[in-house]
Automatic annotation (TrEMBL):
It is a single-pass type II membrane protein. Residues 12-236 form the Peptidase S26 domain. This is Signal peptidase I. It comes from Dinoroseobacter shibae (strain DSM 16493 / NCIMB 14021 / DFL 12). Its EC number is 3.4.21.89. The lineage of its organism: Bacteria, Pseudomonadati, Pseudomonadota, Alphaproteobacteria, Rhodobacterales.
Amino acid sequence: MASTEKAEGGIMETVKTVVYALVIAGVFRTLFFQPFWIPSGSMKDTLLVGDFLFVNKMAYGYSQVSCPFSMCPIPGRIFASDPERGDIVVFRHPVNGSDFIKRLIGLPGDTVQFRDGRLILNGEAVPTEPDGTFDEIFERQGPIGSFPRCANAPVGQGGVCEKEKFVETLPGGVSHSILNIDQSFGDNTPEFTVPEGHFFFVGDNRDNSQDSRYAQSVGGVGFVPFENLIGRADRVIFSSAGSRMLYFWTWRGDRFFKALE
């Protein structure tokens, strides 16, 4: 009888330990940092497929989307801090509920337009400078196994996939890399005026990004409400070029703990 009670007590202690661990992990994920894997190439070469990072959820305060499955009963946003132009932000898609990661380009009240691939912000062309090419191997990338798009297409598997690279300097002084592949709809857009309480996001890999240049009805994200911002990405923690994290021979050691710009 005593051994049975001891066994039952041991099971209960194990259950309590698991429950406590889940609660602590849930609180940590809700209040501080959320893990995020980069699944696509829309932010190359700033972020590569297979990069792993923690999103700083304290950066902008908390809203309904701060909790897993948007379960936080928070109206609007609490402990709010304004994001800054040039921030790399994870946000919840206003319609389909997916988590996206893009660069914040337009603040409330800004006008944003693209002409021949050039960013026009509040009527002024944003300075860009050529910076060579971004080269990668034309092969399947990440768990999804998609191939990259190339400016020098067609490229055979195993060949070098090239994209034009530029450095763009936003008002305020944030400089970052952008890529160009070919002509796309997003290279020439109407002039957008960012509504109050909303933001305009664009991917650094400009011709391979569904972002605020595209309406939600055609798969874009449109203007993103402040309440949909989850947090800021500041640093890559780990990176793997393979389809599985455990394939150590595909780890990108030069990207471990890499600060983002």
